[in-house]
Amino acid sequence: MPTPQNTRTLRFALLAFFSLIVFYKVYTSAYDTKVPLPDVAEIQRAQRLAAAANTPAKDTTVNTPAGFPQAVFPGERANATFVTLARNNDIWEIAKSIRMVEDRFNRKFHYDWVFLNDQPFDDDFKKVTTALVSGTAKYGEIPKKHWSFPDHIDQDKAKQVREDMHKKGIIYGDSISYRHMCRFESGFFFQQELMLDYEYYWRVEPSIELYCDIDYDVFKYMKDNKKNYGFTLSLYEYVETIPTLWNSVKTFMKEHPEHIAKNNGMQFVSDDAGVNYNRCHFWSNFEVGNLNFWRGKAYTEFFNRLDQDGGFFYERWGDAPVHSIAAALLLPKDEIHFFNDIGYYHVPFTHCPTSEEDRLKLKCTCDPKKNFDWKGYSCTSRFFEMNGLVKPAGYEKQMD
Amino acid sequence: MPTPQNTRTLRFALLAFFSLIVFYKVYTSAYDTKVPLPDVAEIQRAQRLAAAANTPAKDTTVNTPAGFPQAVFPGERANATFVTLARNNDIWEIAKSIRMVEDRFNRKFHYDWVFLNDQPFDDDFKKVTTALVSGTAKYGEIPKKHWSFPDHIDQDKAKQVREDMHKKGIIYGDSISYRHMCRFESGFFFQQELMLDYEYYWRVEPSIELYCDIDYDVFKYMKDNKKNYGFTLSLYEYVETIPTLWNSVKTFMKEHPEHIAKNNGMQFVSDDAGVNYNRCHFWSNFEVGNLNFWRGKAYTEFFNRLDQDGGFFYERWGDAPVHSIAAALLLPKDEIHFFNDIGYYHVPFTHCPTSEEDRLKLKCTCDPKKNFDWKGYSCTSRFFEMNGLVKPAGYEKQMD
To answer: What ipTM, to 2 d.p.?
Structure first.
């Protein structure tokens, strides 16, 4: 009769045998990003934390320990980073966002995080964010040339615009820094020294929510499926902030017909084949995209045209319509991806997957009634129609 | 010279050898709750999800698949559960709380979760919460006798009190259901059929936040350290809701001196050795405790005295002062534990560890300036003074 000790030894032997097989499979597998490596990650995080605490401020370059490997499995992941534009006093709001992104996604993948600021980041900001990011956290100070008025801007004219917009009560209408921010996100975030190492990015703003588990590598998905721009929410822009934006776009289209993509997404941004802008844009506080698209010749010439025309200062062009129009015209429409599975909130809008089956599978915590996708002020229906996509069952119930 | 293939085989052999040693250690260890079992948990969760989707409503009993093991490592964890009193329309607020508790703690431990309601839970509530809980989710309907007026209550007198309190603008002063809730949490949550299987509980309310990683087994900690009641926040009660509570407590103390513990925590609840109540109480929307303490003779007689005196209906006694006074008088003071390492928020108060070192180590995302512990309306200083604990460095800076 087997004794408890014998049974235990036998069970150990069997388990050990199967474990060896499993272990060999994992070890020799060419691609398995989901293998948890808690010890390595813990040690690395502790090292980074110690380094962040001891390293003097070096805001214009990288605040990451030398020799820290960029990826646990080099070559098996995408070359990608999170990117956040933040001020020092955003610390607790951005901490909340990092916590969300790590819990729902990055604790399984350990991608890096680049923080950008027009001022030097302080030690508190760096210590808290370094402790939270499971990849390497890097801190960059934005060069003056990327956060200031270009020489060709008429300061008196720009000032007059701000005063007029303020009188009209347009949100951020009188703000200089908001304009620098929109121009920076339109033309320069992907040019920052720290960003040059990467191919893909995921933009994260303070105080967002992520509602659903993301169990696959979003960046690898982009690469493997040849997607260059990804969004969760779309809506109409305030017309007062962009009265002449489309004129500049039309000038660009005339000057550079060679940059307009075949099978582009014109239908998403114009209801009359390009005569007028319908004000639809992807909401750029969430973006997953290919940095090389923004760095390429087509977008560079697109941005330069817009920047030359001065609407970032003479009006209040946002980076959302600028990015969206560029993605719609310069990319084939099938390179733009709707991340239905990423439940997302940025005040005041929610994207929550429409299908109950999806929500349960992805363990979403969002209230489906708050889903903005099919409401009147969203442009996501247009994206579906343009691409011949079938709207999910039950979408009609969420239309208002 | 070693070929790459040889090197790889050698590396595998070495890794396999060390892995076997580690595996044997873990397997034979008497206590290691941190071994991740993602596959088992995933399968079990999928099973539960499927079961929840297919099981008809059985609100008075357990909605959990038969044969589902209660613990992954029976005997190595505490016998414990989360417990939540909720209504069906709390679904998204409780989903947020579960997500928090799972992310910061329970995804590593898979403890069960008991949901209680005075009405039957609907399918939506059960599906969403079952999907989120990494242990077994159970749903109980509270029996009428635990959620109604006892026979000895004079309904006219109780009604008059509600009208008077409403006129005085006392929060929930005119609410019947709030009173049932306070009496239920005071006297009956630990008596529910589903709760009888457990020794320890952690009470969770809708819309809480947990700010810091909890990497150890909180329930095991309670058991191993002979703690019977744990809190994160303490404060003063509104005197209008409990004018005669202390009279009832004094009656109990006279009737049952045998139940008053040696080395009790009287100093926490009274500044004059028991003549008057100082209104200090542990904030009971967070509680980790021993169910057998509430089920024991001392507390049963304490609750019965209070219930007989009628203050749940003739005043508006809350379960927080009732639990707190009982814990202070019926337990030795060293059996009450302050969970400094559990960063916590319930509108409108925050507990955030005072020490920066702790916050970074535990990856806390709370703003230390919001920590309530040392502010004038908190009683936590008294708890420290009673126990001769040294307040953390920097506490003076958080006093207002």
So the answer is: 0.81
